[in-house]
Amino acid sequence: MHETRDIHCELLAPLQQPLLTKFYRAQRSPMRAPNGAQTWVARRQEILAALNLTPVDHGHWLTGLLVAPTERRQGLASRLIEHALARTAGPVWLFCHPDLLGFYQRQDFEPAAQLPPALAERLARYQRSKALLALARKSVTYGEA
């Protein structure tokens, strides 16, 4: 097990975006950072985990959460989510496979009562071909102040 004390979570500068693309490719993932997204990473020197927060309707859509296989099961995804969301205003929504519901509930997400229209439309399209749940950060629903 690796030491997690020497891991730093940070917002990736726009000029460093190619590093994220390289990380996703190295993990054989089709993920990428959407245009306009904030990209958060956990790293020692190299990127070990990443996620993207795309602005949507006075909140953010969390996508692209990925932890390198050698770093999994050490709390790195939880740490990165907590770090990024502590520095992000407004509600946060995400889509996940039903198998990941427990993980996200431990991160204070719950099934979304409502979604911004753009995300609701996207979820409907995605659900045509895969099982997905829409979650929101606890105590936050679309339209609340």
TrEMBL record:
Limits of the N-acetyltransferase domain: 1-128
SUPFAM superfamilies named among the record's database cross-references: Acyl-CoA N-acyltransferases (Nat)
Highest taxon of the lineage: Bacteria
GO molecular-function term, one example from the UniProt record: acyltransferase activity, transferring groups other than amino-acyl groups
Keywords, sorted A to Z: Transferase
UniProt source species: Pseudomonas linyingensis
Protein name as it appears in the record: Acetyltransferase (GNAT) family protein
Pfam families for this protein: Acetyltransf_7 (PF13508)
